[in-house]
Amino acid sequence: MNLSLDYAARGLTSNEVTERQAQGQVNEVAKVTSRSLSQIITANVFTRFNALLGALFVLVVMTGSYIDGLFGLALVLNSAFGIGQEWYAKRKLDSLAVLHAPKATVIRDGETLSIDVADVVKDDLVRLNPGDQIPADGPLISTEHLEVDESNLTGESDAIAKRVGDEVHSGTAVVAGSALFRAAVVGEEATAYKLAREAKVFTRAHSEVQASTNRLLKWLTWVVAVMFPVAIIAQYRDLETGTFAEFRMEWRTIILRSVGGLVALVPEGLVLLTTLAFLLAALQLTRQQALVQELPAVEGLARVDVICLDKTGTLTQGEIVFDHCEYLPGQDPDEALDALGAFAHDPAPNATALAIAAHVEPSAHEVIARRPFSSARKYSAVSLDNGQTWVLGAPEIVAGRDEVLLARVAPLASQGIRVVVLAKVESPDDFGEVVPVALVELSEAVREDAAQTLAYFQEQDVTVKVISGDNPDTVAAVARRVGLDCDSVLSDDSPARQWGRIVDARRLPATVEELAAIVDDIVVFGRVTPEMKRLIVQALKSRGHTVAMTGDGVNDVLALKDADIGIAMGNGAQATKAVAQIVLLDSRFSHMPKVLAEGRRLIGNVERVASLFVTKNVMAACLIIATAILGASFPFLPRHMTLLSMLTIGIPAAILALGPNKRKYVPGFLFRVLFLSLPAGIAAGMATFIAFALAVGTDSERSTLALIVLFIVNFWLLGVLARPYLWWKIVTVVAMVGLAFFAMVWPLTQRFFNLNMPSHEWLLALIIGGCGAAVVEITHWVRRTRSWSFPVRHRDETVVMSGADLE
């Protein structure tokens, strides 16, 4: 580093700035708000579902029967919905991506300049003033009572006094005083960006619904691979042709009948409905000022059973408020108020002065000398034109010898109340005789809706952990004010008994395994570093918890990224918003109950209707196997399955999925769906095949009769899943039955869907369909009356619920 001898006065020269710019030693960094457009498109297009359905769509297009390729719309819509929502969230977040410190004050060639933060170069001489955010890392060259808020990096809300030679770091802010520092480390090597670097590795929120669907698709991929040649052979045998020339004449029919069965094996409606439900929920949450960056995050919220909160900015407003002024016996309140006015209406007020200023008038006397507050001194002083000198500061400094006064203050401090003593002194330096006049009580402003929000979480069996860089006792005091239980005694067999419910995180074990043994019983974590926040989240997850983490500072990035659901505040650091799945645009944590309720409504409703889709898949598998064994043709064309899916599954499922649902999340989604879908699907498949086999007439008439039977079974299943009945559910079911009847009898739809109503055998259809419906009803009754036990992953706990509670 070759700097001029007069660097402290002149800063860099123009040539030195140009040289550093040429070497790339600038403060510009690539800002990552979320995935790029190409990454979004790739993730939503190249999926197992699209590959499976796309291959079948290509086969249908090859036959030239485009009507039978209507199922391909599900492929396009599913990808479009996913891409559209994530791109919308990206653009919304980009619009919020304003740099915290858009300008920096530097000295170059002896002149003071205001430049963009990105234009700061290595070794620039930067001037800091109150309110400035520090743009780079480096040592202080000179300072005048500088105090820095480092909570964005450390979580510690108390301002830190800095001296010449001390390091300041990017991402922190100047609270009081002024200084000059050398920008020794700029760009991506600066502290704030090092912490945020892992944010560039994108991690997608886990969705049990999507994971279960993907598991089904994985199984079905192998089923389709096996069934496709089986279906082709079965359709070829049914044509009763023995020459290759005849096969070439009929290959289109063979492909269409085969694809008709294979399409029914793919739960395209479930995938599309899940994506659509996620999208609508995300749009609803956006109106609640909660921006969803990834659609699966909506469902992930339903599974959250632990939420980790920061104190500052989440439970509190991040500012100090005036609570009370207690005048000591024998002192003049008017004189005290006048003195407080001199402190409060400081031209460069700190947080304490601002809090007091809202409640006192300016002093009637002129301030002839002022000593600003310093964290090192822990007091401020003023001298008035009436000859009086006053100090305002920490009790142990101002009244350190008054044991009675200190004993009076101690209980207030344990409650999280900050007390400063107002006293008359002879000198602002050595005080001389000290006469305490008043106790000024201050506290952190707790958000008005914090207690109500946390009460909602407790009602929903969501455990709340408060994680902060502040003193544990201070954090615990705030936690008590918002209704958290921090003081209950732990049982003798609790591994955390020696720690208690309030801990200084500096004393905690440094490994996930050791921390996991005690983390469940601890409520308040104080003095937490960014690395320890991450360990706490990992320990909770290792215990089987689904963890949500809120944060606003760069110090929260690592923990947000490792949490199942990361929730960032809209006014937080850009790196924090980049890794979060949900951003609270107005930074109000009180939106979280609505977000949680929306997630639970979504997963409850998706589970309710998933049985409709999976039943169709099981039915198709049964039909393919039966036709292959008996050498019969598949009963349906792809267009038949499109009509069936639309009226008995797609439209009603979309409506049911939008209804209210307050059921709490219960693990075991896929097992419960299969419990109803497997017997219902087998019954539907067997009923359909029997009807098709017993029917007489043309293939079109036989297919139509089989379709009627399948409509009966599926509509009964729809009616079962719509319980308990409400007027809008009844209207939905009746409307779908009416539309099915209309499609069967209207000539235009008959031609479009290749339907030919049989002239007789209606009684046969009703009997066979009724038998299938009876199997569905019995299966539902068994599911509703039995008790369900669900082991909790990594924990010796079991959730037990009745079938009725799951509806």
Task: Please explain how this structure is put together.
This protein is α+β, with helices and mostly antiparallel strands and 807 residues long. It is 49% helix and 17% strand. An 8-stranded mixed sheet has the order 8-21-20-19-9-16-18-17, sandwiched between helices. Strands 1, 2, 3, 4, 5, 6 and 7 form a 7-stranded antiparallel sheet that branches. β20, α21 and β21 form a beta-alpha-beta unit.
Give the helix/strand layout:
Elements: H1 7-10, H2 14-22, H3 37-45, H4 48-63, H5 72-96, E1 103-108, E2 111-116, E3 125-128, E4 138-149, H6 151-154, E5 160-161, E6 167-168, E7 173-182, H7 191-196, H8 208-238, H9 244-265, H10 268-287, E8 290-292, H11 296-303, E9 306-309, E10 316-327, H12 333-344, H13 351-357, E11 367-374, E12 379-384, E13 389-393, H14 395-398, H15 403-414, E14 418-425, E15 435-446, H16 450-459, E16 463-467, H17 472-481, E17 502-504, H18 512-516, E18 524-526, H19 530-542, E19 547-551, H20 557-562, E20 565-569, H21 574-579, E21 582-584, H22 592-630, H23 638-657, H24 669-694, H25 699-721, H26 727-745, H27 747-752, H28 762-785, E22 787-791, E23 798-802
Parallel strand pairs: 9-16, 9-19, 16-18, 17-18, 19-20, 20-21
Antiparallel strand pairs: 1-2, 1-3, 3-7, 4-5, 4-6, 4-7, 8-21, 10-15, 11-12, 12-13, 13-14, 14-15, 22-23
Helix pairs in contact: 3-5, 4-9, 5-10, 8-9, 8-22, 9-22, 9-23, 10-22, 10-23, 11-22, 12-13, 22-23, 22-24, 22-25, 23-25, 23-26, 24-25, 24-28, 25-26, 25-28
